[in-house]
Specification:
With 141 residues, this protein is an all-beta fold. It is built from no helices and 13 strands. The protein has one domain: Lipocalin (Beta Barrel).
């Protein structure tokens, strides 16, 4: 499945898909969208591969499988110096928002066996997650 990533310089007229291309990269995603943090593009694709590219050159920094992730439909989000990757059935992975692959945590809501297909949201220090059954607010008081 997955597509590719392409950076196109803003501006211009008519078809800018060739003259304004800054870089192309074969790594990409068919379903989830990436997030940009500090000059890097981050995402996990629909097969559970976490990816990081440099935004200025498209150079791949890492492409690593999230262990036990399964499929990912939700887009990766960033908050509090971390990346949050919500899988469909295997919980949320927490990675550092830096160009070095590391799994900081994998958190599961064991009581909900339905799919998690939507992007999480960060609000007032809490993480909002929606499954096919419930909306969850995860945070501290």
């Amino acid at each position: 499945m997955g597509g590719g990533a392409i950076a196109i310089r803003a501006g211009g007229r008519d078809d800018v898909s060739t003259k304004h291309v800054l870089w192309r990269q074969s790594a990409g995603s068919y379903v989830p969208s990436p997030v940009v943090v500090g000059g890097h593009l981050y995402w996990a694709d629909e097969r559970g591969m976490a990816c990081c590219l440099k935004t200025d050159t498209g150079q791949q920094v890492y492409r690593q499988r999230l262990p036990g992730a399964g499929s990912v439909y939700a887009s990766t989000i960033a908050g509090d110096g971390k990346l949050y990757v919500v899988t469909r059935r295997n919980g949320t992975f927490v990675l550092p928002a830096e160009p070095k692959f590391k799994v900081l945590a994998q958190n599961r809501l064991e009581s909900d066996s339905t799919d998690f297909n939507t992007c999480p949201a960060v609000s007032h220090g809490s993480l909002l997650l929606r499954s096919n059954r419930f909306l969850y607010c995860v945070g501290t008081k």
